[in-house]
Amino acid sequence: MAGTTLLDIKGVQTYYGNIRALNGVDVTVKQGEIVALIGANGAGKSTLMMTIFGAPRARAGTITFAGTDITQLPTHEIARMRIAQSPEGRRIFPRMTVMENLQMGASLDNLKHYEEDVEKVFTLFPRLKERIAQRGGTLSGGEQQMLSIARALMARPKLLLLDEPSLGLAPLIVKQIFDAIRELNRTQGLTVFLVEQNAFGALKLATRGYVMVNGNVTMSGTGKELLANPEVRAAYLEGGHH
Amino acid sequence: MPGTASPERDIVATPVQRATREALYAGAIALGLFVLFIGLKTDQNISNELILVPRWPLLAAVIVLTMAGRFFYVAYGQPFLASQKVADIATGLLPDSVATRFFRLPYFIAAIAIVAVLALLAGSLDSLLGPGLAGYARFARALAIIYALASVLFYFRSFIHAHFSVLGIAALAVYPIIVVLVLALYSGSMAGGFQGSLKWVDNFGIQILIYVMLAWGLNIVVGLAGLLDLGYVAFYAVGAYAYALLGTHFGLSFWILLPAAGAMAAFWGVLLGFPVLRLRGDYLAIVTLAFGEIIRLVLINWREVTNGSAGISGIPKVSFFGLISFNVSDPNYIAKVFDIAQSGAYYKIFLYYLILGLCLLTAFVTIRLRRMPVGRAWEALREDEIACRSLGINTTTTKLTAFATGAMFGGFAGSFFAARQGFVSPESFIFLESAIILAIVVLGGMGSLVGIAVAAMVMIGGTEALRELDFLKQVFGPDFTPELYRMLLFGMAMVIVMVWKPRGFVGSREPTAFLKMRRAVSGSFTKEGHG
C-alpha cells in the first residue's frame, strides 16, 4: 500500500548557533507507512523532528509535505497542514485536565469533530477515559504519553510524528502504545513517522526505517532488513533486548 | 561520648527546659541582629554634629520580647500544635480544632452583649470613662463585632463555601444600603445615614472594588496567559488620562469615553505586546516595568498636554446616562429630581454600583473567555508555549489578545478612577501600584477570581482599616500614624500567606470543561503537602 510521497525531506541542514546538528538529511515518508528513525543519543533524531515543525528552522534543504514546501512556514501554520506531533518529553499541559488537553488538540477545527474524535481516542486508550477530569500533571508517565499521542490525534492528522514514545516507560506500557500505533495505521491508514531509541520495538513496528549517526542518515531499508543487518544489530540491538 | 550528647539531651529534656535553651539562643541572635539597628541611633546635636544616641532599654525590651516569644512557642505552642495532629486513641477522632474551641456559643453571646451595652452607652462613653478609656472601649466594641461576625461565618462555613460567588455578589449589592440603614438608625436620621456612609462606601467599597477590577484585569495577563507584567499601571494611567483629557477638553460623556479609554488602553497593550512577544519570565517583567515607567515619565514631562506633575483637575462627574446628574447646579440634579435633601453620598453610592458593575463585567468576560478557544489557548500558553505552537495555535495573536484584553480592563478602571477622583496626576500611577496589583493577583492564587477578590479585600481593606485605629495613638503617643505601617503589614501578610498557602488563597485551578456529567476532582491533587 505504499502510495504517494507524503513527507519529503531533502538535504536538510540544521544548526544550533554555529554547531551543525543535521548534515544534509534525506528522508521520505509515503502515505500509509510507519517509518522509524533510530540512532544513538545526540544523533540528531529529535532535531529532525523539530526541524519538520520549523523550530529550529532548516538552514539549507527543503521539507515538502503533500506537495507543499513547508520549510519556511511558521510552526502553527505547519501544524495546520495536519501534521501532528507528540513531542519529546510529551509536553502535555500539566495544570489542565485530560479533557482540556484533548480540547487543545482539537482547536484546529474549533472542536467541530471533538465529540466524535474523543470517543475514538478513548477506545484506543481506555485509561484516559478513567482519568478524564484529572489534571495532566497528576497522570503517570505512561498515561501522559498516551495523552500526548491522543492530543495529537485530536487534530485529525495526515501525518503523526512521535518522538520517543517509549521513553521511560515500563515494557508493558510500551507494548500498549506500540499496539495502539499499529492499530491506528492498520484501521485508519494513518501515516506515522517515529523517532526511537528502542530500536528493536521500533523496527518491528515500522514498514521502513532509517538509521542516523552524527547528523547523517547512514542506512535505510525495510524494518525487517534493518533488524537483520549485522551493523544495526551490533550498534543498537545486541544487549539491548526488550 | 561528648559528640552524641546533644541529641540525647533533646530527648530527655522537658519542653520547658528545651524552651529555656532555645529562648537563650533566640535572645543571643536578637542581640546580635539588633544591637546596631535598635541599640544605637544616629542623630544630630544642637551644633549639627552627628552623634550616637544609645537606646539600651528599647534593645533590652526587644530582646526580652523575642526570648519570651520563643519560650512560649517552644514550651506551649509546639506541643499544642503537635497534639492537634494526634488522633484520640480511643475514638480515633482528632481533637476539637482550634477554630471550634475559639468559636463557642457562650463567647458569641458575650460578644453580642458587649456590643449591645457599648452601643447603648455610645453617646456617654467619653463622660463615663474619660477619653483614654473610651478609646479602648471602642476598640473592644470593634473586636466584639468582628468576633461575632467571624462566628457567624464560621458556623455557616459549609453553606458559605458552597454558594460563595452568589453570596458574595449579593452582599456587595446590598452593602451600601445596609451601611446607610445602619448609620441612619445610629444617628437617628436618614440624612445622617447618608452622610456617615461616605467613608464606608468610598474608602472601603469603591477603593477595594477598583483594585478588584485591576487585579482581575491583570489576572488575564499574568494568571491566565502567564505573562509576568510589572507595568500594568500604565494601562490604568492611559485610561485615566484618556477620560481626563477628552472629558475636560471636549466635554464628552463618561459613557462614550469609557469604551474609548478601554480601546485606547487595549491599543497600548498591543503596542507593548509586539516588542515583548519573544520574551518570557524575568526578561518580560523587566521590559514591562520599563514600559510602566515610560508612560509615567511621559505624563510628567509632556506638560503641554498632560499639565505635568500638577495633573488635571476639574474632570467631569459621571451622570446616570445623562438622565440624572450629580452636579448640584444642574437642573436634573438627583436631589431635585427625587425631591430629597442634598448630599454628596448619592454620587458615591452611584459610583459604588458603577464600579461593581464594571467588576462583574470583568468577571463575566473572564469566565466566558476561559471557556472559549482563545481563553483555553491563554492557559495552554502559560503551561507550554512550544506545545501550543505545534498544536496549530498562533502564539503571537494569542499573546497580543491577552495583553489587549487585560489592558482594556485596566483602561476601564482608569477612566472610572479619573471620574471618581475628579483629578489625576502621575503620582497615582507609580510602580508601587503595579506591585500592589500584582501582589493581589499572586496572593489570591493566580487565575482564581474569588481568591483575587478576597486578597484585594484583605489587602486594600486592611490598609484602609489601619487609618481607623486611632486608639493606637493612646498607646504609642500622638505622633503615631498607623497608616505609615501599612506597607510593613502588607509585607508581613504576604509572607504569612505564602508560607501558609504557597499557591495563594485559592490555589487550585477550576477546570473549564466537563464531559456531560461533572466528576469531582479531589482538591488533594493540587494542594501543597500539609500534615
TrEMBL record, chain A:
GO terms for biological process: L-amino acid transport. The keyword Transport applies. Keywords: Amino-acid transport, ATP-binding, Nucleotide-binding, Transport. SMART domains: AAA. One of its GO terms (molecular function) is branched-chain amino acid transmembrane transporter activity. InterPro entries: AAA+_ATPase (IPR003593), ABC_branched_ATPase_LivF/BraG (IPR030660), ABC_transporter-like_ATP-bd (IPR003439), ABC_transporter-like_CS (IPR017871), BCAA_Transport_ATP-bd_LivF (IPR052156), P-loop_NTPase (IPR027417). Residues 7-239 form the ABC transporter domain. It holds the Pfam family ABC_tran. CDD domains: ABC_TM1139_LivF_branched (cd03224). PANTHER family: HIGH-AFFINITY BRANCHED-CHAIN AMINO ACID TRANSPORT ATP-BINDING PROTEIN LIVF. Belongs to the ABC transporter superfamily. This is General L-amino acid ABC transporter ATP-binding protein.
From TrEMBL, chain B:
CDD domains: TM_PBP1_LivM_like. Keywords: Cell membrane, Membrane, Transmembrane, Transmembrane helix. Residues 21-117 form the High-affinity branched-chain amino acid transport system permease LivHM N-terminal domain. It is found in: Cell membrane. Its main location: membrane. InterPro entries: ABC_transp_permease (IPR001851), LivHM_N (IPR021807), LivM-like (IPR043428). GO terms for cellular component: plasma membrane. The chain crosses the membrane at residues 23-40, 52-73, 105-123, 135-156, 162-187, 208-228, 240-271, 283-302, 308-328, 349-369, 400-418, 430-463, 483-500. GO terms for molecular function: branched-chain amino acid transmembrane transporter activity. It is a multi-pass membrane protein. The keyword Membrane applies. PANTHER family: HIGH-AFFINITY BRANCHED-CHAIN AMINO ACID TRANSPORT SYSTEM PERMEASE, HIGH-AFFINITY BRANCHED-CHAIN AMINO ACID TRANSPORT SYSTEM PERMEASE PROTEIN LIVM. This is Branched-chain amino acid transport system permease protein. The lineage of its organism: Bacteria, Pseudomonadati, Pseudomonadota, Alphaproteobacteria, Hyphomicrobiales.
